[in-house]
Amino acid sequence: MRIATLILAAGLSSRMGTFKPLIQLAGKSLLGCCQTLFQECGLQEIVAVVGHRADETEAEAASLAIRCVRNTDYPTGMFSSIQCGVRSLPKKTEAFFVLPVDIPLIRPATLRKILTAAAINKKAIIYPVFAGRRGHPPLIPASLIPAILAHDGRGGLETLLDRHKGIDIAVWDEGIHLDADTPADLERLKRRLARISIPNRQEIDALAGQLLTKKGLAHSRMVCRAATALAQVLNDQGCSLDLDLIYGGALLHDVAKGQHRHEIGGAEMLAALGLKEIASIAAAHMDLEISPTGELTEKEVVCLADKFISGTRRTGIETRYVEKFKIFAGDQKICRQILGKKERALALKDRAEHMSGKRMESILNEAGL
Question: Distance between CA atoms of 296 and 190, rounded to whole angstroms?
Answer without folding.
Answer: 29
